[in-house]
Amino acid sequence: MRKKLLAGNWKMNLAWNEAMTLFANIVSESKPYLDKVDIAVFPPSIYQRQCFEFAKQNKSAVIVGAQDCSAQNGGAFTGEVSAQMLRSIGVSHCLVGHSERREYHHEGSRMLSEKVERLLEVGLIPVFCCGESLQDRDNDNQTFVIDNQLDGRIFELNAELFSKVVIAYEPVWAIGTGRTATAEQAQDMHEFIRGLVQSKYGAEIAQNLRILYGGSMNESNAAELLNQPDVDGGLIGGASLKLDAFISIIKAAAL
Ligand code: PEP
User: Fold this and answer.
1) What is the distance in A from the centroid of ligand 1 to the CA of 140?
2) Model confidence over 96-152: pLDDT tens digits?
3) What mean pLDDT value characterizes the chain?
4) Residue 200 CA, ligand 1 centroid: distance in Å
5) Which of 40, 98, 116, 243 is the residue whose CA sits 20 to 30 A from 108?
6) Cβ distance 24 to 243 under 8 Å?
């Protein structure tokens, strides 16, 4: 039985005091649910260390993740943060291939594969994001696009390494738009992804793989989405910035 993972992606939001207040509240209000679900917060990089220390001091299992890492190991790469550095401050998960990074930072498949490799080399868990555009969905090309985003990228990994990865299905047309995939659309795609994984890596790895849904998940639609058999949690942007909404989503997953 897969434990659900609820991951809040704060993106480039919140001043330091707001971020620490929200994180402290998440730590305290998530306590009753942490045995049933995993909870992760992906704050902006400069807050990660303090969030990790706060969780540790409060003996909380809330995970601290990073929104990005470098494809390089280290050296003369101004402004970059390596997977090794993330690990050294307690970060355990890292998003790779979020559609905003693919679009605004022109991150292509080769770079994404390198980031996944850097993370796995130091024992961090990549949360690999994939998702089709509205045009692809309207042309009924979504499965082709997702197959393409996975095949020859993370599907290059051997079975042992792949078994550490989390996949997040995030239809681009649903991110930050208020337009959510229906529970049926999410389930269909998650089932399709699990099927691809099964044909590549076998049933056991496919059954253990966590596939998160992301795209305008909120307190009103979370229960239905999270109730689908192949939806193993959520990657939540906007609603993770609001304490009540995020905790309601966690509650829905813990039921
Ligand atoms: C995201 O950025 O990964 C995301 C799903 O955002 P939102 O929940 O705001 O659509």
Assistant:
1) 22
2) 999 999 999 999 999 999 999 999 999 999 999 999 999 999 999 999 999 999 987
3) 96
4) 28
5) 40
6) no
Q: How far apart are CA 91 and CA 42, in angstroms?
A: 9
Confidence of residue 85 (pLDDT cuts 50, 70, 90): very high
Q: Whose CA is nearest to atom 8 of ligand 1?
A: 237
Distance 163 CA to ligand 1 centre (A): 25
Q: What burial class does residue 182 get, using C-beta atoms within 10 Å of its C-beta: 0-12 exposed, 13-18 middle, 19+ buried?
A: exposed
Nearest CA to ligand 1 atom 6: 237
Residue 98 falls in the annotated catalytic set: yes
Residue 204 catalytic? no
Residue 217 CA: which ligand 1 atom is closest? 8
**How far is the C-alpha of 119 from the C-alpha of 125, rounded, in Å?**
7
Token pair in block for residue 69: 């890492």
Return d(Cα 31, Cα 23) in angstroms, integer.
13
What is the number of other CB atoms lying within 10 angstroms of the CB of residue 222?
Answer: 25
- For helices 243-254 and 16-30, the axis angle rounded to 10 degrees is 30
At which residue do the structure tokens 């009103």 appear? Answer: 220
Task: From the candidates 100, 107, 132, 170, give the one annotated as an active-site residue.
Answer: 170
CATH classification of 4-254, choosing from 3.40.50.300, 3.40.228.10, 3.40.50.2300, 3.20.20.70? 3.20.20.70
Q: Which of 93, 98, 107, 190 is an active site residue?
A: 98
For residue range 218-231, what is the model confidence (pLDDT) as tens digits?
999 999 999 999 99
